[in-house]
Design goal:
Blueprint lengths: L1 H35 L16 E3 L12 E3 L39 E9 L8 E6 L2 E6 L9 E4 L15 E3 L8 E3 L1 E2 L6 E3 L7 E7 L2 E5 L5 E5 L3 E4 L15 H6 L27 E2 L18
Parallel strand pairs: 13-15
Antiparallel strand pairs: 1-2, 3-4, 3-6, 4-5, 7-14, 8-11, 8-14, 9-10, 11-12, 12-13
Amino acid sequence: MNNLTRLMASCAIHTQRQSLLTPITSSVASIKLRNKTKVVEKPKPGNGKQFRRIVHFKDEYTVEPLTITHLAGRDPVTGRVVAKGIGGGLKQKYHWIKWVRDGPLEGPPQEEKVIEIMDDGCRTAKIALVGVGDELKYILATENMKAGDIIKTSRFIPRIPVRPNEGDAYPLGALPVGTRIHNLEKNPGYPCHLIHAAGTYGTILRKFDDKVVVQLPSKREYAFDKTCMATVGRVSNIEHNKEHIGSAQRMRLLGNRPRSGLWQRKDGRFGRKIKKLPPMTLIPPPPAKAPEVIKLTLPL
């Protein structure tokens, strides 16, 4: 009889433990589910989004300063922090740079006059206000450019390379070997979106067939088409990389959020490594346009 009572008591204790454990497991499951709903999808690399600012461009090009919406590292749709290193910053106006330096295909080059050199809070290099005819536009200023200079632009490639001045824009095939260039086209006719940072420049190394080999600021060599436009000279504000920030407050004014201090760039498996430069890369041609569909109708 005593053995039977002990057996019944143990069964009661076991069921009581199960009843106590049941709400604990359910609460854990709810916590896990709640954490899953807070996961933020990070942006894929290479899509060109900085999550720093949104520039409200107009329908047509203008030299009027454009308004900006600061994102401070947050996604504009969800409002969640995506880039942790961005935040704060002074309110700026955006000056729209005209990246296409277009000139005549034959004959004398087009002459343009530099009206003013100014600073731009949205980029490291200085910009220049240039006038040609009844048109005004902004371009990147070169190292020694000043107000009143006359710069030339041409798409003509002569048999003998030209002797360009600083700020002139010519095709790569028209420039001599050893010329320093910036604001380079990746493919002919496309906007010049290479070598924009302050104090940077590329160097023309050699020519073969219809290609021109250019060494970019990263020391990598690329072979571009000889008709790609480039601006002669070095980008202005060459002392930018030596500029001393001075205080944490100025770093916040530049739009940089403070880091945690736990990660060290030079230590561990993710630290700096000296790697051999990759070989020269050929720039592929732009994608071919789809053929136009021609519809023929007959009156019946």
